[in-house]
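# nightly structure sweep
# worker-07 picked up a monomer target from the shared queue
# config: single-sequence mode, recycle default, output format = structure tokens
# input follows
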Amino acid sequence: MRATMPPTDSSSPAAPLASIGRSIRSLRRDQNQIHSFHAAGDSDLDAADAFQRRAADLLTDLLADGQPDLLSLAWTSRLLDAFLLCLDEFRALLFGPGAAAAARPPLDRLVADFFDRAVKALDLCNAVRDGLDLVRQWRKHLAIAAAVLAAAPLGEAQIRRARKALTDLTILMLDDRDGGGGVVGQRNRSFGRANKDARPHAQAQGHHRRSSSGGSSGSGSGSHLRSLSWSVSRAWSAARQLQAIGGGLPVPRPNDITATGGLASAVYAMGAVLFIVAFALVAAIPCQDRGLQAHFSVPRNFPWSGPVTTLYDRIIEESKKKDRKNSCGLLKEIHQIELCSRHLMDITDTAEFPLPEERDADVQEATRELVQVCQSLKDGLDPLERQVREMFHRIVRTRTEILDCLSRPHGTE
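# output follows
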């Protein structure tokens, strides 16, 4: 059973979790094992510049030719890999020679602001996890249709069964599209699947909630869409959360950059990376009250400004395409679900059985496309969910460790 993560309060920082994180001493030993920039004799400014260049390179790689299609499962997985690398290197930077500066103005204020925004990303991780589980439910209907249509020869019973599965899928997707979150809004589940063994644990941790409709989790109709632990409240909005993460991101002043040895710029860079990753996740995955209205811009004098701005613009452009405006999510595989379902419904809309040879060939070709989509989802959804979970835990752990470090008297471990 996977551990259940508690919901977070997006209006205040999360309390440190004593059970999460390694000691500061072990972190410092591990610094040489990740992509550290602290070579002997390097200044803080050199290290901060190296971090920004590293972030720029990771984001630029996502835009390079030969990369997976934008907002596909494979591309989104690489985006999360880039974020986790940036976060590890950011942590190494703050635990390096600049650790003392992080406890003093003006860097203490900038670090605190970043972690307040990072805490707001935790509920977003939970909502994205719910969205991935919803796509997993859609895949089950696709798999039914694919299995039925793969049988030969196709008769009226098989066609009707396949169309029933595709109709159920269409209804589910329309519920999400038209309901401002639809099913996702009813499925507030944190990291970990609810099962009969989870209830005592959830109650012991104080995470068990009743749904706002008054029914308990796992009871009544649609119980598979409810959970023992609400990941986000019914009033939670992905669009508002994005604005909270990226809105008013404090641009470091030249004096602050100089006074902090460039660390102020590194904190700003990490904040921008956090936003663009959150923005891409909300764009790609069905989320409660998802929307891309959050305006974001950064000065162009930072090495990572170009790729961040390009990623933002490309995602906005994708959302404005005629055939994507009303989609449940911009994930490439979701678009393929919609296209395959629509195509199969069109070509199986016949009263003639057995199917004419030409029509049968069309069905078989469309079925092969459907099978490919199902396989892509099967291969990609679980690994992506693990990465989103890792993003959640890594943010919590990093914040806890840095707060722990800054709260200790200087020079102690």
